Amino acid sequence: VPPHPQHRPAPSHAAPTSSVANNSSLFFPASAPAAPLYSPMTQLWDSVRAEPFNLGSWQRLLSGSHATHDLLEIRGAYRAFLKVFPTSATHWKALVEVELAHRQYQEVEAIFQKVLLKLPEIELWKLYLVYIKVVHTPAAETTPAGPAMDEALHAMNLAIETAYEFVLKHV
């Protein structure tokens, strides 16, 4: 049973920081009421709140969030983790993959804008190219025919070429 929505970490669009001076406010709003049921996810959140630098607790929380199949739960767990460990390219990549799987392209774009130039991780850059191909490749059912198709393919190729040039410039 997923925790009550008020017990999820507040979404944060601010740049990640590693400041964990007040652990409880890092994950939950100060005015959050007690959970009606003590769910497994609540236990996992309590564990990372108690020891924010315990990677084992975080891994169990991230795994537990994936087991819920709840995008908001998964996203909240990754965002909380990345507040504590903002340079973990592996986890930024995992979050992008979750967002891509759910076709949350605005979220993917925001993540890339936030971290791509800050973290020199080749796997993030490779994923960026995958993302560009996904968003610029027309779906078969919407692909135009004739001259319109030529224009669509030219635009797609130009976008992909521009992305590759961008990557080569920064890697």
Basic shape: elongated
Q: What is the mean pLDDT?
A: 77
Give the ordered list of helices and strands. HHHHHHHH
Number of strands: 0
Biggest beta sheet summary: none
Which band does the percent of strand residues land in?
A: under 5%
Written overview of the protein:
This protein has 171 residues and is an all-alpha fold. 63% of the residues lie in helices and 0% in strands. It contains eight helices and no strands. The longest helix has 24 residues, at 147-170. The radius of gyration is 19 Å and the shape is elongated. It starts with 22 loop residues before the first helix and ends with a helix. Residues 1-22 and 28-33 have low confidence and may be disordered.
Name a few traits of the molecule.
63% helix; single chain; 171 residues; elongated; disordered N terminus; mainly alpha
What is the fold's blueprint, element by element?
Layout: H1 23-27, H2 40-50, H3 55-68, H4 71-84, H5 89-101, H6 105-115, H7 122-136, H8 147-170
Helix pairs in contact: 2-3, 3-4, 4-5, 5-6, 5-7, 7-8
Summarize the model shown.
The protein is mainly α and 171 residues long.
